[in-house]
Amino acid sequence: MKKILAVASVLCFLFVSVGSSVGSGTIDAKDADGGILVGDRTFLSGTVVNPVEENGTISAQALQVFYYNPGIFVDQVGVVKGLTTISFTKSNFIMVWTPGPFELIGYVLGFCKDFEIEEE
Fold this sequence. Notes:
Elements: H1 2-22, E1 36-54, E2 57-69, E3 76-89, E4 94-97, E5 105-117
Antiparallel strand pairs: 1-2, 1-5, 2-3, 3-5, 4-5
């Protein structure tokens, strides 16, 4: 299990490092609450602060999270930084884990549904 977490941590670091050089993509769609909708199926990789799950939806503050919404061409790709609030619906293909006794810092890796970047 520790080997899997170590490999996942290295993958998160690599995706975030690559994502830092990519920059933010353009995002057009907004939901009724004013948050920015990225996509129905989005790949996430990175570090979050204080992840909270409520009714299958996870919300957290993004310390640095790389996102990629696959399409025929590169649809939307970018990095969310600086404790921006994000939320997404949990699926079978995403892993969110919080090592340590306080579960304050967490890691996210995989494909999720309904990824949203909340505007402050």
